[in-house]
Design goal:
Order of helices and strands: HHHEEEEEEHEEEEEEEEE
Helix content: 10-25%
Low-confidence stretches: 1-23, 278-286
Strand order of the largest sheet: 6-5-4-3-2-1-15-14-13-10-9-8-7
Number of helices: 4
Shape: globular
Distance between the termini: 64 Å
Mean pLDDT: 89
Amino acid sequence: MRMGRSWFLVIASAVSAVSAWGQATMNAQEVVSRACEASGGIAAFRKLGFLRAEIASEEVTQDGQTSSTSKIVIFKTEAIAPVRLELPALGVIAGDDGSGGWALVQGRPDPRPSTTVMVKRMVTADAFPLLLPCSLTWPGVAVTEVVPAQLADRPTWRLTVTLARNFFHTPQIATVWLVDVDRENYRVLRADSPYTDLGKGVVADGMRFSWSNFVTLGGVRVPTQQIVVGLDPLGNEKAHSRRDTVKWERLATEKTAGLFENPIPPEQRPRLPVGKPVNLPGNPPRR
């Protein structure tokens, strides 16, 4: 009986070790591929073409103040650009046809040189979390690590995602994220963008994204509700939160004519200084 029990324990330990080794060495590309397939497939995602997302946001600050905002973003799923951004409350219409960004504020050209690069990055900041996991295949995105983890009662693959330094419109959004993918059905459950400290008192809450309510566009599953919760320096959730309600629409290519082209006369367009870094706006938009 002792010999049988000992042999059983040896076998159980070996099986457990093999299982743990398999979990610890899961290939990042395989996890991303399976997650994209669970959402409809990367081929279907790229074939979506132009998407229009109308985003209505309700935000609650740390001290309990509430506010409402809305925006419209239009972009191409395969490579983001060309893009268009509309902020109705501010009278802002902006775009980038792939050759450089432009913006009109109350009908007047935005003269800041940073406008030429900021528009695409602002749209990317909205689109990236909404289109996970397929957005993990975009240029400037790299999954650098995969480890087994747990969210409540769900076993997950936790992906470390490293983004290009200029991926977003503000350095206050972290460029290393953690994304949890359900180990059973490969659905994305959560994404964390950590708290940032840029020095000299410039800090920003982290963001924890989760999603509910989905629709299917061209065979691809996308969320219509997104919850964003603030994170403190230790990764703990704060009272600061935001709820985004999204209305999606596919746009036929012929309906996008004129949406992205720069309407500003060439002589009035801002230009980046040669050999100098981009001067970002002093007060970047709230995330």
